Amino acid sequence: MRGLARLKKILLLFILLVTVKYMHAQQPGITDTTAKKQINILHADKISYKKVDSLNEYQILVGHVAVQQEKTLFYCDSASINTKSNILEAFGKVHINDNDSLHIYSDYLKYLGKEKKATLTGKVSLTDGKGTLTTSKLDYDLNTHIGNYYDGGKVVNGKTVLTSKEGFYYEDTRDVYFKKDVVLTDPEYTIKTDTLLYNTYTGISTFVVPTVITSDSGRKVVKTKDGYYDTKNKKTYFGQRTEIQDGATFIVADEMASDDSTGFGEARGKVIYRDTAQKVTIFANHLNSNRKNSSFLATEKPVMILEQEEGDSLFIAADTMYSARLSDLKKYRNVPVIIESKAQQASDTAISTIKDTASSDEDNTDVITKSIAQKKDTVSALPAIVQRKRPGRKELAVKITDTINTVNDTAIIAANTFTKKDTTVTVKSVDSTIAPPMDSAALVKMAFLKKDMALQNKLSPKDTAANKNDSTNRFFEAYYHVRIFSDSLQAAGDSLFYSGEDSAFRLFKQPIVWARESQVTGDTIYLFTQNKKPSRLYVFENAFTVNKVGTGYYNQIRGRTINGYFKNGNMDYMRAKGNSESIYYAQDEDNKFIGVNKATADIIDMYFEERKPQKVVFRSNLVGTTYPMRQVNHDELRLRGFKWLDDLRPKTKYELFAN
């Protein structure tokens, strides 16, 4: 029995030993990490040993010291290694070579071999082959390959220098995360922020907090909260309502991108562009620009504001707006300039004379030249013109003649034709050679502009007219659903062209202009401005003006062309030429209607006072009839082509933004 019990014990012990051995065989091999993390000595001129206690035993290395841990090499003048704790302290000309991809230099190093963490002090320098980081103290983790400093540091990457109070370096991605009082200095710009991410390999700076970027000696300032700046490729992206002040120009948008190498820029989302020098503001949802040729293209509900000194700003809305240098446009398109000549100045004098004498019994009108009546509406009908010299334009070799004469004019003032309520008046002009003030059609030789939005891809980036003033060397185009609003004037049309050289707005395809209670229509309308206020209005072909004087009562003038003149921004005088017709409601001193006159003449003039029509003067070949108010069906008293288009008229500036 005793033998059997003993045998059982031996068998049980054998099974236990086999099981333990089997279990041990099933476990994966255990790596001796302690051996791998051990700091090994490669070289030293002198080596000594010192034991302090059971926990501290040192190897003392002096002279050209080189030690290694895994793939990391350490160099210094002298060092001590605690073999118990695996801690290395290095002194003098410390150099860490981490797998030949990163090099760190310092005066002193304390390295925890087990944790693979280093603390370096005294003229610390870290380089990854692209950028160099310098600081007075650096903590570096060789496990994560992340270094950080908290006492101020600087990174130099080519010509770019970055400084901050705190910084974190990531070797794997070559990113440096700067915090607190961050300043990036580059030959072309300076960045100031509280937090910045910079990549030493790509040279891209990324912004995540409020950031200010200045360039051009402080002329250009960017304020952003989000985005990046690619220093190598000169590309930028900004988000979160970035603001850019560039000299006299200011722009803000939800997001913006630019390429300095090409000059192209793009802004999206509630874009506001303002030029304080030109007093121009643009609102749009999408704006493309080219800095090299000073052009821009605004789309997605753009609105332009032309500010005036007295506050009556001009608002313009359209589907698309484009602007660039006029000198560049002339390389690809014929842009005739409407010249204000001496004859036109003489025309102004004649108009003033007519207005002063029109109320007399014998209406005397100055004649500009006898030949005008013989050669109507042609450029050759201006023998007394010497055009003003302009850069690049030859002076017309025209001989000046003094043929001004004074003759009688039997122009009839509508208010004076009413003798009795039931009287019908037919009047013929005594002298059919009376010359009107100079017609704008004779001053303009214009080829209609083609709608070429592809022009922006053709314009040369070179400025061939650098000596020209920028305000005159610009043009502006608006396409489709053009609408204009100011307190004194409104307009609408299919398309618009504006030239800074002659300060003229050209409206095409069913254009309409409203001024107070007056409406002007025609095939094409030119609106000239002076100091950004309307000064002249020229209507070409099928010209028609309507003035509402009461409910259902409309003064009407129809002609081939109409010229209008403004005074202090308000309509002052209007002339219709070419088979002119009119319907005019006469009023007495108490503004009561006393009759309506329907007439035809070669020329019809309308004069305004306090923004209202006061009188009508007919010149040459007048045939007119005066009707009492009760004898006329006023709803049917309309000239051919009459349209009252008040529904198309913008009533407030806010309508332009709403659309």
Walk me through what this model shows.
With 659 residues, the chain is mainly beta. It has a domain of 176 residues: lipopolysaccharide transport protein A fold (Sandwich), CATH 2.60.450.10. 8% of the residues lie in helices and 51% in strands. It contains 5 helices and 43 strands. It has a 41-stranded antiparallel sheet that branches. The chain has a two-stranded antiparallel sheet with strand order 29-30. A hairpin with a 4-residue loop joins β23 and β24. The termini are far apart. The relative contact order is 0.06.
Summarize the structure.
This protein is mostly beta strands. The chain contains 5 helices and 43 strands. The protein has a domain at 481-656: Lipopolysaccharide (LPS) transport protein A like domain (lipopolysaccharide transport protein A fold).
Beta fraction:
over 45%
CATH architecture assignment of the domain at 481-656: Sandwich
CATH superfamily of the domain at 481-656: Lipopolysaccharide (LPS) transport protein A like domain
Biggest β-sheet strands, sense, barrel:
41 strands, antiparallel
On the 0 to 100 scale, the average pLDDT is 77
Over all CA atoms, what is the radius of gyration?
Answer: 44 Å
End-to-end span in angstroms? 111 Å
**How many beta-strand runs?**
43
Structural class label: mainly beta
What are the low-pLDDT stretches, counting only 5+ consecutive residues below 50? 17-32, 341-468
Task: Please bin the fraction of helical residues.
Answer: under 10%
CATH topology of the domain at 481-656: lipopolysaccharide transport protein A fold
Overall shape: it is: rod-shaped
Please report the number of helical segments.
5
- Reading off the top of the CATH hierarchy, the class of the domain at 481-656 is best stated as Mainly Beta
